[in-house]
Amino acid sequence: MFESLRFPIIVAPMAGGPTTPELVAAVTAAGGFGFLGAGYLTGDALDDLISKTAELTGEPFGVNLFVPGAPSTADVSGHRQRMLAEARRYGVEPGDPHWEDDNYPAKLDIVVERRVPVVSFTFGLPSAEDVARLHEVGSKVVVTVTSPEEAQLAAEAGADALSVQGFEAGGHRGIFVDDPALAAGGEVYGLLAALRLVSAVVDLPLIAAGGLVHGADVAAVLVAGAVAAQLGTAFMRADEAGTNTTQRRALTDGGRKTAFTRAFTGRPARGMVNRVLTELSAQAPSAYPDLHHLSKPIRGAATKAGDPEALSLWAGQTYTLAGAGPAADIFATLEREAREAFSRASGLLG
Length: 350
Fold this sequence. Notes:
This protein is α/β, with parallel strands linked by helices. It has one domain (9-348): TIM Barrel, CATH 3.20.20. 39% of the residues lie in helices and 13% in strands. The chain has twelve helices and eleven strands. It has an eight-stranded parallel barrel with strand order 1-2-3-4-5-6-8-9, surrounded by six helices. A three-stranded antiparallel β-sheet has the order 7-11-10, with no helix packed on it. It starts with 8 loop residues before the first strand and ends with a helix.
């Protein structure tokens, strides 16, 4: 499904704003591929986003859906009380912590109706029936996995390809089941290790994701067997990205380490360390999307105030090395660096 790309770089579906139609269009025009992030959107909003992207590019693009999990049974009252201090700091009230399905049925109907060429899934497995519906209209199905066990389940469900996510990745982990006893929600694998382990148990095309910000990173995962490299953090400071000003400034400053946290959404995600991550991560329950709704007004107020200390500053481990500027220039730099890496490796091998 990515064989026709001039160069196998994919812009990741960064839900919540960073991945825009303009960013997808710019990367496809440069010779790559892009996914729109449908997470947190209504069905109508996704439909509009697909239409706008189609207006900007005549090339194929994909859509990523969040697979809804089961409602959490965790007690979130303690976390709400702890977040109350943050809310008061910004003069707002915490949101209502509740479970919902992210409008998944409506959004699945839309990608089927619109015959989106590639539909990817995160946070779990689509049902065999959902996969069959997509296949019936010619769509290819990609499932995000973090382990060989998840890869086998995805293959059995009929996935056409897998997005293999290493622990270096910014944002939410794509784990199927969040183990509350583990800070990262499950066993963690670096991207190269994950590619090797997954390729040993399934025979599907693999997309590599996690901490890729340099062309040499792209070359490395292609040599390791991936058919394409998916980059998110590398494009967060692109001119066309919808990254908010406060996060852009934090990405540019580069003075923060990254760590996993459930404090903002109730699901493990890698972000830059700030006050909320430091003070509230240890006791944050596994309760997604309950905590996402709880913290949303606080995050919004912090964004408006230009204060990064209460934002979910999602970023990959190598974010300090990512570039900025027009997406086409970032893409061209990555391609040049990758080709130079290939050439250098070829020389080393004689």
